[in-house]
Every structure is written in structure tokens, then in C-alpha cells.
């Protein structure tokens, strides 16, 4: 039986992570990224919390984040008007997460996906998609298209999917 093709839109954090899990589950994923080239030094910092580290461990890339990251042992939360909300962890305790440059997890996950033989196509910005009962076609800004059995939107805030005229009976719920 031929493998089902998964079109993964976006090669940030979610895209390669989903693609690797799908590949391991027997699907045939391909990642389409809008940017022409990757820039692994873009953005500010991101803290990968313990639950995120557990997912990265499943993907076999947690050690890279530990090596590159700054241990975050305690983190205090304040509301936008300064009210203290609480603290997780202790200064002398176990790391609660690791702080890395925002582009670093992108790089690590993209490279892991490539190592698993998952193609990553740059300069492929999703602008439209069409669904039939059996197939989905993704149309890209450069005039090309790709067919798959299903499509997973990993384009952050599901912006591209939100603007696509699909027949989904729901409106995207933007969760950030
Ligand atoms: C300044 C800042 C600080 C943050 N700090 C933290 C933090 O400390 N801890 C934390 O857990 N989270 C943090 N976040 C949130 C975190 O960065 C996001 O939750 C995470 O990046 C979401 O991953 P993603 O894969 O969904 O999106 P992204 O990592 O943003 O990747 C989306 C990818 O989709 C591509 N794309 C977009 N549109 C299209 C299209 N039409 N076609 C093809 N590709 C497309 C983009 O180019 C991008 O590469 C922070 C966010 C910001 C902005």
C-alpha cells in the first residue's frame, strides 16, 4: 500500500516536529516553507519549558537545546500591570527549561527532519488550497502546486489556512 502524502505548511517549530512524527507513523511528509532561505538568527529568545523538552527528547534533539541553551531554573510571572502571579521552580532547583535564540529550535528541528529524509522546500508560500473527498491540492505563490492526502497547517497562527477558501465548517481559532 502506498504511503499517504502529508503536505506540511511551514518549517518553523511545529512543521518539522509534526513531519518527523508522521514519517515515523508511516506517512510520507513534505514540508513547504514560505521563506526563500532560512535565517536561523532571526528573532529574540524563546524558553523551551519542560514539557517542550520532553517532546524534543522524543525527536532526539533535546541534547542540542541543552548544550546551546541557558538553564532556566526559576521563572516569575507578572500581569501586564505588574501584579505578581507566581513563580515556577527555584534558583537552586532542577532546570524548568532552556532559553535559546528563537531561530535555534527551527534549525535543530529542520536538520532533524532532513536527516530523516523529509524534503523541505523553501520559497513555497501557500496561498490557496482545494480539497476533494480524497485529496488536497496546495497552491503556492510561485505558481506551483502540490497534491497530498492531507495538509497540516504549521504556518503559525494558521494564517495561511485562515485565508484559504476551504470548505471547513469552522472558523480557525487563533491561539498564538
Ligand atoms: C518574540 C517572541 C517570543 C516568544 N517566546 C516564547 C517563549 O519564550 N516560549 C515559548 O514557548 N514560545 C514563545 N513564543 C512563541 C513561539 O515562538 C511560537 O509559539 C512558536 O514559534 C510557534 O511555532 P510554529 O511552528 O507554530 O510557528 P513558527 O515557528 O513561527 O513557524 C511558522 C513557519 O511557517 C512559515 N509560514 C508562514 N506562512 C506561510 C505560508 N503561507 N506558506 C508556507 N509557510 C508559511 C513561516 O515562515 C515560519 O517559518 C514567542 C514568540 C515570539 C514572537
UniProtKB/TrEMBL annotation:
Q: Which UniProt keywords apply?
A: Monooxygenase, Oxidoreductase
Native source species: Insulibacter thermoxylanivorax
Which GO MF terms are attached to this record?
FAD binding; monooxygenase activity
Protein name as it appears in the record: FAD-binding domain-containing protein
Q: Does the keyword Oxidoreductase apply?
A: yes
UniProt-listed PANTHER family: MONOOXYGENASE (PTHR13789), PUTATIVE (AFU_ORTHOLOGUE AFUA_6G14510)-RELATED (PTHR13789:SF309)
Q: Where is the FAD-binding domain?
A: 6-155
What's the domain of life for this entry?
A: Bacteria
Q: What Pfam families does UniProt report for this protein, alphabetically? A: FAD_binding_3
Amino acid at each position: 500500500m502506498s504511503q499517504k502524502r502529508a503536505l506540511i505548511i511551514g518549517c518553523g517549530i511545529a512543521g518539522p516536529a509534526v513531519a518527523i512524527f508522521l514519517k515515523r507513523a508511516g506517512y510520507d511528509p513534505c514540508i513547504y516553507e514560505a521563506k526563500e532561505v532560512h535565517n536561523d538568527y532571526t528573532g529574540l529568545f524563546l524558553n523551551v519549558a519542560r514539557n517542550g523538552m520532553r517532546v524534543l527528547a522524543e525527536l532526539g534533539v533535546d541534547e542540542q537545546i541543552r548544550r546551546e541553551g541557558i538553564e532556566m531554573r526559576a521563572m516569575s510571572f507578572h500581569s501586564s500591570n505588574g501584579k505578581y502571579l507566581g513563580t515556577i521552580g527555584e534558583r537552586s532547583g532542577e532546570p524548568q527549561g532552556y532559553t535559546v535564540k528563537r531561530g535555534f529550535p527551527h534549525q535543530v528541528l529542520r536538520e532533524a527532519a532532513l536527516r530523516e529524509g523529509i524534503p523541505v522546500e523553501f520559497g513555497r508560500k501557500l496561498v490557496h488550497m482545494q480539497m476533494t473527498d480524497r485529496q488536497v491540492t496546495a497552491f503556492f505563490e510561485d505558481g506551483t502546486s502540490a497534491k497530498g492526502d492531507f495538509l497540516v497547517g504549521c504556518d503559525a497562527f494558521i494564517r495561511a489556512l485562515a485565508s484559504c477558501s476551504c470548505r471547513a465548517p469552522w472558523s480557525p481559532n487563533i491561539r498564538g
